[in-house]
Specification:
The chain has 260 residues and is of the alpha/beta class. The protein contains six helices and twelve strands.
Length: 260
């Protein structure tokens, strides 16, 4: 049984946050889900429901729909530079709000990001650290699902909390530019500090968006994108096997991370 919190956090703010609780009084560890550049979808709510069934609270962020002409209703996507600034403020505001939620374990916060959504997670969990959570909030781990290539170009020497990264092996270019799976795999292998565990999960025959259920009945779609070092192709397609493997991997990661 899931309990839905109303009103939603952020209802009077430029973002929306749906909270899913497990059955019981808590307090519960919490996982904050930040969507990709394409915006929110039912896929993230389904993920949150699964997390709640397994004893963790989950927050699904919608960074777009309360901001004018963006979001599901308008199908418009903001510039990456603009959205990043919004999203970072959203996360900080949400973390402050969670300090007042008695059903949340403030020392057991996990950040999760998909594609460009991982850009909101990285500043909290990377060394050098650029964003600091509010006093009383402790981020203990992160889940990065096919993090965007812009993050791979950033100065990141290591992670400061345990992290699991998921990538389809067909996600990105292995050349000029070096993108996606290939860029991140190389970056992680070259980390200077390996004291904090980093799990890098690879899925054969999987592209970007392999776990987004709304892509399930759509053909593979590809488009060209300009990166720092050139122009490359990015393709999106659902992959059932990778989807299922990632669920299992995340479950094992969270169980070890939270000692439950």
């Amino acid at each position: 049984m899931l309990i839905f919190l109303a009103p939603k956090i952020g209802l009077a703010k430029p973002y929306i946050a749906d909270i899913y609780y497990p059955k019981g009084d808590g307090p519960f560890p919490v996982i904050i889900l930040s969507h990709g550049a394409g915006g929110p979808s039912v896929a993230y709510k389904k993920k949150a429901e699964g997390m709640a069934r397994n004893g963790r609270a989950a927050v699904v962020l919608d960074h777009y729909s309360a901001r004018g002409d963006y979001g599901d209703k308008f199908r418009n996507i903001p510039k990456l530079s603009d959205a990043r600034e919004w999203r970072e403020k959203d996360i900080i505001d949400l973390l402050h709000a969670l300090k007042n939620d008695n059903k949340i374990k403030k020392d057991k916060v996990i950040l999760a990001g998909w594609s460009a959504g991982s850009g909101i997670v990285l500043p909290f969990v990377s060394s050098p650290k650029r964003l600091i959570p509010p006093d009383g909030i402790t981020i203990v781990g992160a889940i990065l699902t096919y993090p965007y290539t812009a993050g791979c170009y950033e100065e990141i020497n290591s992670f400061n909390v345990p992290v699991i990264i998921h990538f389809g092996k067909l996600d990105g270019n292995n050349g000029n530019p070096l993108t996606g799976y290939h860029c991140w795999k190389k970056k992680i292998e070259n980390f200077k500090d390996r004291k904090v565990p980093v799990i890098f999960k690879e899925y054969s025959d999987a592209y970007h968006g392999y776990d987004l259920v709304f892509l399930k009945n759509r053909p593979k779609r590809c488009h060209m994108r300009k990166y720092k070092d050139g122009i490359g192709e990015i393709c999106m397609a659902f992959n059932q096997s990778a989807f299922e493997q990632a669920i299992i991997a995340n479950g094992e990661f969270l169980k070890k991370l939270l000692n439950d």
